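Lay summary

Proteins are chains of building blocks that fold into shapes. Our project writes down both the chain and a compact code for its shape. Here are two examples, one after the other.
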Amino acid sequence: MSFMIRLAENKDKSSLTDLMHDYIVGFYQNPWPGTMEIHQLMEQLLEKQGGIQFVVEKEQQLIGFATLYFTISTMKAARITLMNDFFLLEPYRDTEVEEELFLTCRSYTQEQGFAHMFWITSPQNTRAQQFFDKMGASQGSWMNYSIV
């Protein structure tokens, strides 16, 4: 299977917007935050302001993306990455594409001197949990909360 993983570029904005819609609305069934808001987020990531996005391209079509945000861990007293998004269209899940996208995020984290990469996934997303286990990840013991 021929594919390329690379940093997102301006030319990806339309296709990446469609993928992000599939991810946010289709996969996680959350409300769409708005195209303008998504484009503002993309601009920040294109400028590497607090994070980056990788895209997966196959035959000149985007088939997936991953977003790494940069933050700091007090527990490690070091910079870390948060893999906030990790999404591939259905036909590319459980394939080498999925593994390579994950390894790209991990390699970037290591090569840029971050202490580690962490992420969360939905408790219902057992397929992703099995994938992360296979990739050598360990499930943390912290409870996640949020508030509006």
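And here is the second example, written the same way.
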Amino acid sequence: MVRSLKFKALAVAVIVAFSITHLYNYIFLNWRLERGKDIILSISAYQFLALTLMMATGYFYYLKHQITSNERE
């Protein structure tokens, strides 16, 4: 059960972090990009990985809390 919760949390966190990263890169870093003139900016892979792992950990504990609270009732 714990392994499936970890996998579900990581799968959701990768998708959400990837979306957040692309939105952040577009909205805050490259919103005035002129093709051919400017350098495309992006957050680092380390920041993406850190965001993903923090989100996965938080979501895992949220799912675990939901299951344990439902078993108590």
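What can we say about the second shape? The CA atoms of residues 23 and 29 lie 9 Å apart.
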